[in-house]
Amino acid sequence: MPSNFFDESEEQSAIKTAIVSKYFMAWAQVIIPSAEKRSNRIAYIDLFCGPGRYKDGTESTPIQILQAAARHPKLSQMLVTLFNDLDHENVASLEAAIEAMPEVKKLKHQPRVYNHEVGTEIAKQFESMKMIPTFFFVDPWGYKGLSLKLINAVLQNWGCDCVFFFNYNRISMGLNNELVKAHMNALFGQDRADALRTRLGSLSGDQKEVTIIEELSNALREMGGRYVLPFRFRNAAGNRTTHHLIFVSKHVRGYEIMKDVMARESSSTKQGVPSFEYNQASKNQPFLSNFLKPLDSLAAELLERFAGKRMSMLDVYDRHQVDTPFIKANYKEALRNLEANGQIKTEPPAPKRKMMKGQRSFADDVIVTFP
């Protein structure tokens, strides 16, 4: 690893930390009521945790997670944390930062910090365990230790979600590097990795990127991670992708929460639709191409998809939003426009609904009848 890798908290590091921290707290709020009836514990695991602080003084993700948990009355009594890093200096830095936290004493379960290499053995350990609800964060510098087997080992348990940092540049180069072939096979599955090696030679740079992310998303979905969300990071010049932060869950509620978090952290929107900084997509990548549709297309899709149906706004949202970039506000806007154009009927109709911010509200329970 380069000696200056953790020297600065760059913008992408800040965004990554914001996404992880915000999701963790929202996830915890949803999980806590059920967890209280079970083991009364939930967990946060970070196998590539890095130091306690960057050299510019910025607190790392583990410290921000612990601080947020310590401030929460219930979470401070339920949270179990496990941090690991192969680098001895990172481990020492994190341990020192944790020890210096005044609020760490509020945590019933004190953080555990380890210094192990992440490989097949850890995946096997997780496979053999019945885990408590866990938010699992994997942020390797390259790719060693990141595998479908590891992710699936965590997701097999109730209430467990995973987000991992995917170093696109290193993995793109590694796919055709015999020295790291085993790591690539572990990440994509051997058959999918072999197929990628054959396809990539004839593709341009942009095509390679969307193909690699598309295939990784498909691999995650096939193993049972039905809900996948990738968030792209570009370099400072904005002309090259560096990483993707990829979320995977078996539960639509987790997907909805992360979608909202990523939407808020997106650097731009188009017609109110968040960019998620996704890759350019083409017809050859149907999963990713769904994330590039403007809001104008949503209304037309809803008319076609739900022709002849009578359903609530919430049902429309629930049945359509997966694998699209659209958030709940986009559905309300699209339906409001269809209503104004006389293309749908609503109960109660617009004149009987409250005015909010200069327009008629469109509550979750408004009934929509499609022609």
Your description of this structure?
This protein is an alpha/beta fold. It folds into two domains: 11-290, Vaccinia Virus protein VP39 (Rossmann fold), CATH 3.40.50.150; 293-369, Arc Repressor Mutant, subunit A (Orthogonal Bundle). 44% of the residues lie in helices and 16% in strands. It is built from 15 helices and 14 strands. The protein has helices at residues 11-36, 61-71, 75-78, 88-99, 120-127, 148-155, 168-174, 181-188, 190-200, 205-222, 252-265, 286-289, 295-305, 313-320, 328-340, and strands at residues 42-46, 79-84, 112-114, 134-138, 161-167, 227-234, 241-249, 269-270, 273-274, 310-312, 345-347, 355-356, 359-360, 367-369. Strands 3-2-1-4-5-7-6 form a seven-stranded mixed sheet, sandwiched between helices. Strands 10-14-11 form a three-stranded antiparallel sheet. A two-stranded antiparallel sheet has the order 8-9. Helix 5 (120-127) runs parallel beside helix 6, helix 8 (181-188) packs across helix 9 (190-200) and helix 14 packs across helix 15 (328-340). It is globular. The N and C termini lie far apart (59 Å). Mean pLDDT is 87; it is low at 1-9 and 278-282.
